[in-house]
Amino acid sequence: MSYLDRLAEVDYVPTKEDVLHARVRTNGVVETQFSPLGESKRGGEVYRLYDVGGQRNERRKWIHLFEGVNAVIFCAAVRE
Fold first, then answer.
1. Is the pTM value of this prediction over 0.90?
2. CA 16, CA 21: separation in Å to the nearest integer?
3. So where does this one cross the membrane (predicted)?
4. Domain residue spans in the chain?
């Protein structure tokens, strides 16, 4: 059975591998805010994680996010 046949089945349920290979193109900027937990929490710090589109035409939307930052941490999928 081909992948296409399996995906087209009425009772299709994605496998873990299907989910890992799924890709959704990021459009614009998606911001997630979080704070440190526990006793290490310092003075109400808030961290912001931005998921940004990497395509050339998306870059102008996020370059301003670098203004006033103290650190930049890049996250990437291990398998890509």
1. no
2. 9
3. none
4. 24-80
Query: Which residues sit in the known binding site for GTP?
Result: 20-26, 51-55
Residue by residue, pLDDT tens for the chain (80 residues) are 677 888 888 899 999 888 888 877 777 888 888 887 755 556 677 788 888 877 777 777 777 888 888 888 877 777 76
Note whether 69 and 47 are within 8 A (CB).
no
Burial string for 59-79 (b: 16+ CB within 10 Å, else e) reads: eeeeeeeeeeeeeeeeeeeee
Residues annotated within a binding site for Mg(2+) = 26
What is the separation of C-alpha 62 from the centre of its chain, rounded to a whole number of angstroms? 14
Question: What are the binding residues?
Answer: 20-26, 51-55
| 54 burial via Cβ count (<10 Å: 0-12, 13-18, 19+) | exposed
